[in-house]
């Protein structure tokens, strides 16, 4: 692997994301040689840590994520980490940061390359981008910005943030990260759809009755109540992860597998996204809040949650496109906290054939993203000893050894940032469409809230609200996974 020279500045270097995801991912890339002698990382955050303290934290993070922990390599890796205590609103701190980056650049021969990573509270993203610009933190080599979600709170704030960022970074240098795009089975959607003549040819309204995306979580909001109150399930999961999955399911076949062609195909699809009216939201969406379970209080009693909050912890809804191979096929989604299992899956429901076998079981294609990684086709066959049809799965899955090689989403995406591959990052024009959809749903809900005392509640450990079973276009449709 080519060794990339770079100084990386992580805003939010003392945070949970850096500890759990970024440091272990960087370590793996270090072991693989993508970054090695010519890199340094500056962690910056409010806390008054020292370089040594950050280095100990990095070693700890590597240890926690590695079964075969090798202390010597971890220490060598951690010696490339530096800490700069930082108040993001204080201009003086950007000057100090710039001096440290310049010094490290010389020490490590980083060729003026910089990666800025925003991994902290999103309300500071704009301020940081502005100061990177006015204090000229940009290096003389390549400059890339990695930015976590949420990118804005609605279309207007996302546009403002985009404007602030664009003063320092071209769109081509902005990497809006969505960790779902780094997941193995999400990256399998295109080959599944496009590399098999059976699947490729049935990918249309004539054969597909509907598509269903389920991202269920068994945990509640825990200590994240404060953030969640500003977000809700719609902004937390639908605006990004669910829409990215749906886009991959519904986009036309790109003319090539490079980033430009893939994004072109995505854009073509998203230009035809149907923005829901309040009537559509009323009929084909459902939202609610979880009730208490043995191990967690109900949402309304969670820490930092308003007792009369109308923020949804579960949402189900429908997406439609006017163009693309599955134009006219309803795409249903649901996601929520405190559901039965931690499961992420896609179910493609095929039409029943009106023929001799009207007693056939439904034929589906399912893609399991988490907790396992598999694809299965359900098919009908005849029962051996009695009349009727039996249903079996044809399964595509990985061995244990293969599963152990699957890199974490963050490792994969950070690798892509280092090698400047923007295929699996969200472009601004796509994000804009996602926000238009989400804003329309939010607006409809705000209207509904005026006559609503409280949201529908759902018991923990099930599949969300009762009303989510009635969002379908046809009475014959239902959730496949239940
Ligand atoms: C994050 C959300 O983006 O995705 C969290 O902010 C959620 O609320 C998480 O728990 C789910 O990701 P995964 O990979 O565990 O399914």
TrEMBL record:
Where along the chain is substrate bound?
A: 179, 183, 217, 236, 337, 342
Q: Which GO terms describe its biological process?
A: glucose metabolic process; pentose-phosphate shunt, oxidative branch
Q: Which residues form a coiled coil?
A: none
Under which pathway is this protein filed? Answer: Carbohydrate degradation; pentose phosphate pathway; D-ribulose 5-phosphate from D-glucose 6-phosphate (oxidative stage): step 1/3
Question: Which reaction does this chain catalyze?
Answer: D-glucose 6-phosphate + NADP(+) = 6-phospho-D-glucono-1,5-lactone + NADPH + H(+)
Q: Where is the Glucose-6-phosphate dehydrogenase NAD-binding domain?
A: 9-188
Instruction: Name the top EC class.
Output: oxidoreductase
Query: Which family does the record claim for this protein?
Result: Belongs to the glucose-6-phosphate dehydrogenase family.
Recorded protein name is: Glucose-6-phosphate 1-dehydrogenase
- Residues that, per the record, bind NADP(+): 46, 87-88, 149
What is the top-level taxon of the source organism?
A: Bacteria
* Annotated ranges, domain Glucose-6-phosphate dehydrogenase C-terminal: 190-479
Q: Does the keyword DNA-binding apply?
A: no
Q: Which InterPro entries does the record match to this protein?
A: G6P_DH, G6P_DH_AS, G6P_DH_C, G6P_DH_NAD-bd, NAD(P)-bd_dom_sf
Transmembrane annotation, as ranges: none
Query: Which keywords fit this entry according to its UniProt record?
Result: Carbohydrate metabolism, Glucose metabolism, NADP, Oxidoreductase
* Species of provenance: Lactobacillus taiwanensis
User: Is NADP a UniProt keyword of this protein?
Assistant: yes
NCBIfam families reported in the protein's UniProt record: zwf
Identify which residues the record assigns to the active site: 241
Gene name as annotated: zwf
Entry's Gene Ontology cellular component terms: cytosol
One Gene Ontology term of the molecular function aspect: NADP binding
Concerning Gene3D superfamilies, the annotation shows: Dihydrodipicolinate Reductase, domain 2, NAD(P)-binding Rossmann-like Domain
The EC number on file is 1.1.1.49
A UniProt-annotated Pfam family: G6PD_N
């Amino acid at each position: 692997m080519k060794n990339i020279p770079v100084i990386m500045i992580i805003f939010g270097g003392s945070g949970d994301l850096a500890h759990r995801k970024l440091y272990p991912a960087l370590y793996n890339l270090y072991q693989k040689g993508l970054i090695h002698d010519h890199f340094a990382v500056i962690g910056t955050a409010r806390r008054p840590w020292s370089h040594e303290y950050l280095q100990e934290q990095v070693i700890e993070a590597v240890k926690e994520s590695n079964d075969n922990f090798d202390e010597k390599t971890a220490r060598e890796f951690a010696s490339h980490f530096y800490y700069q205590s930082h108040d993001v609103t204080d201009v003086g701190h950007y000057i100090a940061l710039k001096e440290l980056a310049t010094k490290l650049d010389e020490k490590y021969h980083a060729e003026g390359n910089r990666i800025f990573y925003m991994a902290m509270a999103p309300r500071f993203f704009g301020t940081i981008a502005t100061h990177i610009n006015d204090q000229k933190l940009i290096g003389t080599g390549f400059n890339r910005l990695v930015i976590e979600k949420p990118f804005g709170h609605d279309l207007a704030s996302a546009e403002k943030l985009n404007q602030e960022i664009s003063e320092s970074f071209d769109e081509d240098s902005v990497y809006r990260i969505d960790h779902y795009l780094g997941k193995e089975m999400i990256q399998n959607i295109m080959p599944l759809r496009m590399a098999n003549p059976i699947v490729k040819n049935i990918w249309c309204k004539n054969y597909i009755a509907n598509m269903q995306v389920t991202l269920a979580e068994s945990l509640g909001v825990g200590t994240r109540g404060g953030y969640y109150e500003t977000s809700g399930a719609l902004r937390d999961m639908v605006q990004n992860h669910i829409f990215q999955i749906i886009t991959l399911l519904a986009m036309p076949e790109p003319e090539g597998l490079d980033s430009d062609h893939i994004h072109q195909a995505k854009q073509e699809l998203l230009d035809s996204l149907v923005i829901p009216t309040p009537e559509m939201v009323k009929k084909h969406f459902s939202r609610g809040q979880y009730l208490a379970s043995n191990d967690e209080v109900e949402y309304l009693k969670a820490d930092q949650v308003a007792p009369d909050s109308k923020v949804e912890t579960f949402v189900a809804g429908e997406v439609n496109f006017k163009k693309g191979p599955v134009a006219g096929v309803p795409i249903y989604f649901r996601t929520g906290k405190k559901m039965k299992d931690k499961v992420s899956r896609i179910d493609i429901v095929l039409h029943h054939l009106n023929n001799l076998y009207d007693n056939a079981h439904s034929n589906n294609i399912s893609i399991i993203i988490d907790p396992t990684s598999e694809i299965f086709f359900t098919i009908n066959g005849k029962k051996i000893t009695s009349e009727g049809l039996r249903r079996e799965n044809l399964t595509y899955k990985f061995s244990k050894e293969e599963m152990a090689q699957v890199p974490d989403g963050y490792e994969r995406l950070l690798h892509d940032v280092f090698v400047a591959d923007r295929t699996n990052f969200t472009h601004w024009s796509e994000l804009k469409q996602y926000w238009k959809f989400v804003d329309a749903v939010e607006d409809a809900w705000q209207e509904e809230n005026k006559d609503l005392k409280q949201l529908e509640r759902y018991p923990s450990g099930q599949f969300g609200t009762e009303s989510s079973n009635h969002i379908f276009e046809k009475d014959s449709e239902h959730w496949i996974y239940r």
